Amino acid sequence: MAPHQQTIIPPRTFDLQGFTAAVRAKDADRWSDYFDEDAEWLEFRHDQPPSHPHRMQGNIAIHAGLRSVCAGDYGMEVEDTAMSGSNVWFRLVLTRPDGSRVLEHVHLALADNGLIHRQTDVEAWDLT
Which residues pair with 60 in a beta bridge? Predict the structure, then answer.
C-alpha cells in the first residue's frame, strides 16, 4: 500500500495594490473578485447602528452592492492602507459633486485562500 500523500497548497497572498486599484477605478467586477464565495460585509453608520448593521452576505450579494456603489456620482479614494498577516485596514473617502464626503474606516479579515472573508466598515457622513 502506498503511503498517503497530502497535497499542501500554500496560502494565496492578498494583492493590496490590485485591490486598491479596483476600488479607485470603481470597477465592481474586479473589486468583487477579491471576496470569498461566502464573504460577509458589515457597514455601521448613522442609520445602521451596531445592533442592526447593514449586512451583505456572499459574493453574489456583495457584487450587486458594489455595482450600485460604483454607479454612484462621486469620487473614491483609498488612503492609509496597512496590512499585517490576515488583516488589512484602510480609509475610504467618497467625495460627492457638492463637496460633501463619506469617510469609511475599513477592516478586511482575510481567509487562508487570500480572499476577503469579512469586511467591516465604520462610516461617517456629511449629511446634506
Answer: none
**Spatial strand order in the sheet of 116-125:** 54-57, 35-44, 116-125, 101-110, 87-95, 75-84
C-alpha cell, 119: 469586511
pTM of the model: 0.87
Helical ranges in 42-100 per DSSP H: 59-70
Task: Report strand pairing: 87-95 vs 101-110.
Answer: antiparallel
Distances (CA, A) of 63 to 13, 31, 59, 75: 21, 8, 6, 19
Greater model confidence, 46 or 2: 46
Q: Which residues pair with 54 in a beta bridge?
A: 43
Q: How far apart are alpha carbons 27 and 113 in whole angstroms?
A: 22
Q: For residue range 24-36, what is the model confidence (pLDDT) as tens digits?
A: 999 999 999 999 9
Closest CA to 86 of 113, 57, 121, 62: 113
